[in-house]
Every structure is written in C-alpha cells, then in structure tokens.
Amino acid sequence: MRKAIALVLALVFFNACIPLRIAPTISDYKLTEGKRFKKGLPEKTVFAFEDPKDAEAFYNYINIKYQLEDYYVDVEVPFKIDDNEYFLSFYEVEIPDKSLNLLPMAVDVALVASDSEPILSDSYATRDGNWYIAIEVFSATEKDCLHENSPSRAEVLSYLRAIKEEYLSTHNYNETLFKN
Questions:
Q1: pLDDT value, residue 39
Q2: DSSP string computed for 59-123
Q3: By C-alpha distance, which of 30, 159, 143, 142 is closest to 95?
Q4: From 14, 27, 36, 121, which residue has the greatest number of CB atoms within 10 Å?
C-alpha cells in the first residue's frame, strides 16, 4: 500500500509544472506605470489591455484610423479632444507565462546517471505568450495625461476606452474612416 501511495505521489510530482511567472489577466483595461507592467516601457502611466488579435493588427488599425501612411505610427500619433491636441504612443507587449516542467528534468537526471546524454533539456521550461497593448498619452503641456493628478485624465481615459472598443470590434479597419 505504501509503495502505491509513493508511486502516485511521485507521478504527481514529476508531472507537475511549477509556475515561475503568470501573465496578468486584464478583463477590460488597466492603468499602471509602464515599467511596472513590463520592463522596457516608459515610467509614465499606460493604458494596457489584452490584445487577442494578430501581431501588427493594432499598428494597422492606428495607421488607417489616423491616416498616417506608415509615418510615426507607434509614436506621437496626434489626436484632438475638445480642441486640445494630444499624442499617443503605443507598445505591443508580450508577457509570457513561464513554468518549470519536472518530468523532463527527472528523465534527463536518470539518463545522466546511466552515462547517457540528456535529451530533454530544451523542455525544462515552457512559455506561453500573452499579448497586450500599452498606450501612453502626452501633450505639449503634460508629460503624462494618464497620471492620477492629470487634469485631462478623465477625457483621455474616455477616448482610449472608445479606441480600445473600436479596435476590438472592427475587422476591416477602413470602416473607421467612415465613422469619423
């Protein structure tokens, strides 16, 4: 009986994947400091949401919506709210889930113990990518329009929510030209 329990526990242990990093789940959007969300982003406040679409889809959406003709599409995209000019910059960000797989490691330990070469060393860790769009907004008078003390935060946030909803619901981005 003890051997059976030990065998079951060993199988559970060796089939286990230990999560090392779990990407955040964002149901709608998240306002956070860029550097805290993903290393390499600016220290400004960013509007982040999950991107279920293919790579470059948001780039194409912004390029067509603002008629940028592939010029400065991801940086300093100008837009107006109530005759005030703002600029947005966006980042397509991947935050992978990462886990440690114990079974391949145990197999390789057994192979090394029997004087063989390890064959599964590439599968010790697995990664599963999660993609996000992070948007920062600034103006000529404000460096961070999404900061909690920014006077323009409410209207900029409302505008970004509308942009996100339009992006996620539109399949043919040329439709956005007719909405304006």
A1: 92
A2: HHHHHHHTT-TTSSSSS-EEEEETTEEEEEEEEEEE--EEEEEHHHHHHHHHHHHTT---S-GGG
A3: 30
A4: 14
Return the domain boundaries, the chain. Answer: 2-179
The CA distances from residue 53 to 30, 171, 172, in Å, are: 18, 10, 13
pTM of the model: 0.74
Residue 177 has pLDDT above 70, yes or no: no
Distance CA 35, CA 50 (A): 17
Question: What residues contact residue 41 under an 8 Å CB cut-off, 6+ apart?
Answer: 34, 35, 91, 93, 134
- 163 close to 179: Cβ distance less than 8 angstroms: no
For residue 23, give both structure tokens. 């990407």
Radius of gyration of the chain (CA): 23
Please give the Cα distance from 151 to 128 (Å, whole number). Answer: 39
Q: How high is the pLDDT of residue 124? A: 44
- What's the residue count for the chain? 180
Helix axes of 153-169 and 57-65: crossing angle, nearest 10 degrees: 110
